[in-house]
Amino acid sequence: MINIRIIGAGNPLHGDDAIGYHAVTLLKQFRWPDSVELVDGNTGGLTLIPQFRHCKKVILIDCFNSPSQVGQVTYFSSVELKADQGADFLQAAQSIEHGGGIKELLSLVPLLIYPLPVIDIVAIGGANFTPFSGKLNEQVEQTLSDVCHRLHQKIIKELSQG
């Protein structure tokens, strides 16, 4: 069984929205135990529902529209999804706006997946969503490199502690 599945979500041809794609690419450079799986979620939206099955933890990495806080990282740890609330926790986090299907995905997961894995979300603020551009904002790119390094360290430590 996969202990941890890391999903990078976002459109690889839409500026900063390519964060998920670039995160998975960077994370593949690290050595991972067999119990960790990296998934390029692309623009998956609802097609990502099966990725929440057969694992103990899902870490979702995505870009959120945050023009005033480009490169800011918000980490939602052990997100509790409820069937009647879905992704309402995102509305409570000021400056976090998201389009696409992530809210819908997180709303359906508790209805369709049992048992639910622990869900962490790494939200990185972006502002450049230029169509047909896979290039990240420089600040976002620097932040992403640091986030991937820290995430690797955190997961390896977590797994070694059992």
UniProtKB/TrEMBL annotation:
Keywords linked to the UniProt accession: Aspartyl protease, Hydrolase, Protease
Organism whose genome encodes this protein: Spartinivicinus marinus
Signal peptide positions on this chain: none
GO BP terms, alphabetized: protein processing
Coiled-coil annotated residue ranges, if any: none
Any one GO MF annotation of this record: enzyme activator activity
Presence of the UniProt keyword Hydrolase in the record: yes
Protein name listed in UniProt: Hydrogenase maturation protease
Family: Belongs to the peptidase A31 family.
ATP-binding in keyword set: no
